[in-house]
Request: fold
Amino acid sequence: MELSDVQINMLASLVLLFLGLYCVISKKNLVKVIIGIEIMAKGALLSFIASGGANIQSVVIIAIAIDAIIAAVALSIIVNAWKHTKSLDVTKLTKLRG
Reply:
């Protein structure tokens, strides 16, 4: 049994999704968690591209732009967390104050 290109791309997107999910669940460093979220987003975009269609390309380009904005906001939150706690450990962020 030979896999088609669409099936290979879908399998790769599933691998990326599970790799990102593992990274989000298992890591305690905020930077590694954000990288895991980005990997999951890229896996989802790969599945959109693999499904095909002419309109899908414009949706993926918009999603990449939104993903870059989300990454910038997340990194600014990481910088603020570093300023307040001097650590990037997720467990240190349980005592946040307004």
Summary: DSSP finds three helices and no strands in the chain. Helices lie at 5-26, 30-51, 54-85. The chain has a mean pLDDT of 87.
